């Protein structure tokens, strides 16, 4: 667990203020009446099912979604009228990995936002890039094509692109999706370090136990904000049912609130109402019109009185 509770209030105005935001794409609203404050020391996750509007909140904050009502303020000024110091890391699946570009070139793309009229790279930009690559454990890979990297390395490259502009906040869209357990933990601890160095973190995730439960602040949403606070206050059966539309029991483990995953029954066991009369139950799958069932034997441990 990275933090047990949200960071203490610094008695400062919010870094980002989202007020009554309705946003989406091509006239279709994905989120409606979303209001949210992100403080300078926040490390928060937007949690919800696919299509719940998590990504749209991030994209609206950086001006990449259509805004139909409300506004997003950065340090009190609308993001539509300024160039806020916001770093954005998209989902890896949104990247064209066949595009011929090197690690160095990707990271330096982030430097152009500070000099939009002069989009060539200066010596200080390259020095900064070198320090960031070293900080992210990517030194020695500057000339490597991004398609040749592992998933964890690719994630850090785009994190480097966001960091080179020296942002006040990082917005990350599913930064732990599609990576192995060690890489996921490495990414979370790296973000935790950046947060302690003064960068606010707002990320999206669909991973409750593996990610959201470890963070100091969780924001559950499904088209609108449903709950906001520490995991122990937000990850409750009532909130999770409102978020996901399903019963999701929770438990406490070593001070963490976790969702209990209930077993699923398939095939013959499910057709018999979960009881086969034996301790060994078949998981069948049916094929063809004759209802033939091919059964694979699996052990089912039953609770005894």
Description:
A 6-stranded mixed sheet has the order 6-7-8-3-9-10, sandwiched between helices. 34% of the residues are buried. It contains 8 helices and 14 strands. α2 (103-109) packs parallel to α4. Mean pLDDT is 84; it is low at 279-305. The chain has helices at residues 54-61, 103-109, 123-135, 151-163, 181-196, 231-234, 237-244, 267-271, and strands spanning 16-25, 28-38, 43-47, 66-74, 77-78, 86-89, 169-173, 200-205, 217-221, 225-229, 250-253, 256-259, 280-287, 292-299. By secondary structure, the protein is α/β, with parallel strands linked by helices. The longest helix is centred in the middle third of the chain and has 16 residues, at 181-196. It has 3 domains: 1-85 and 171-183 and 195-246, 3-Layer(aba) Sandwich (Rossmann fold); 94-167, no CATH class; 267-299, no CATH class.
CATH architecture of the largest domain: 3-Layer(aba) Sandwich
Number of helices: 8
Highest-level CATH class of the largest domain: Alpha Beta
Strands ordered across the widest β-sheet: 6-7-8-3-9-10
What is Rg? 23 Å
* Overall domain count: 3
CATH topology term of the largest domain:
Rossmann fold
Average pLDDT reading = 84
| Largest sheet entry | 6 strands, mixed
**Secondary-structure element order, N to C:** EEEHEEEHHHEHEEEHHEEHEE
Globally, the shape reads globular
Helix/sheet category: alpha/beta
CATH superfamily caption of the largest domain: P-loop containing nucleotide triphosphate hydrolases
Describe how the helices and strands are arranged.
Blueprint: E1 16-25, E2 28-38, E3 43-47, H1 54-61, E4 66-74, E5 77-78, E6 86-89, H2 103-109, H3 123-135, H4 151-163, E7 169-173, H5 181-196, E8 200-205, E9 217-221, E10 225-229, H6 231-234, H7 237-244, E11 250-253, E12 256-259, H8 267-271, E13 280-287, E14 292-299
């Amino acid at each position: 667990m990275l933090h047990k509770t949200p960071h203490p209030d610094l008695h400062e105005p919010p870094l980002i203020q989202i007020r009554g935001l309705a946003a989406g794409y091509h006239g279709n609203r994905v989120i409606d009446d979303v209001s949210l404050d992100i403080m300078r020391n926040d490390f928060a996750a937007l949690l919800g099912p696919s299509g719940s509007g998590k990504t749209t909140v991030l994209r609206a904050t950086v001006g990449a979604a259509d805004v139909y009502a409300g506004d997003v303020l950065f340090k009190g000024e609308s993001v539509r009228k300024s160039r806020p110091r916001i770093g954005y890391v998209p989902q890896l699946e949104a990247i064209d990995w066949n595009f011929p570009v090197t690690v160095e070139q990707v990271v330096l793309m982030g430097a152009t936002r500070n000099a939009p009229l002069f989009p060539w790279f200066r010596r200080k930009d390259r020095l900064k890039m070198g320090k960031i690559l070293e900080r992210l454990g990517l030194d020695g890979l500057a000339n490597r094509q991004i398609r040749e990297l592992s998933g964890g390395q690719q994630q850090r490259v785009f994190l480097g692109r966001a960091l080179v502009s020296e942002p006040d906040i990082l917005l990350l869209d599913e930064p732990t999706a599609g990576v192995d357990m060690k890489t996921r933990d490495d990414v979370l601890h790296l973000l935790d370090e950046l947060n302690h160095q003064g960068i606010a973190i707002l990320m999206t995730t669909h991973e409750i136990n593996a990610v959201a439960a470890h963070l100091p602040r969780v924001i559950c949403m499904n088209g609108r904000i449903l709950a906001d606070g520490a995991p122990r206050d937000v990850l409750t059966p009532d909130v999770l049912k409102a978020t996901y539309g399903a019963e999701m029991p929770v438990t406490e483990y070593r001070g963490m609130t976790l969702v209990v995953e209930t077993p699923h029954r398939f095939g013959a066991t499910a057709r018999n109402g979960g009881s086969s009369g034996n301790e060994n139950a078949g998981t069948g799958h049916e094929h063809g019109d004759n209802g033939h069932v091919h059964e694979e034997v699996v052990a089912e441990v039953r609770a005894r009185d």
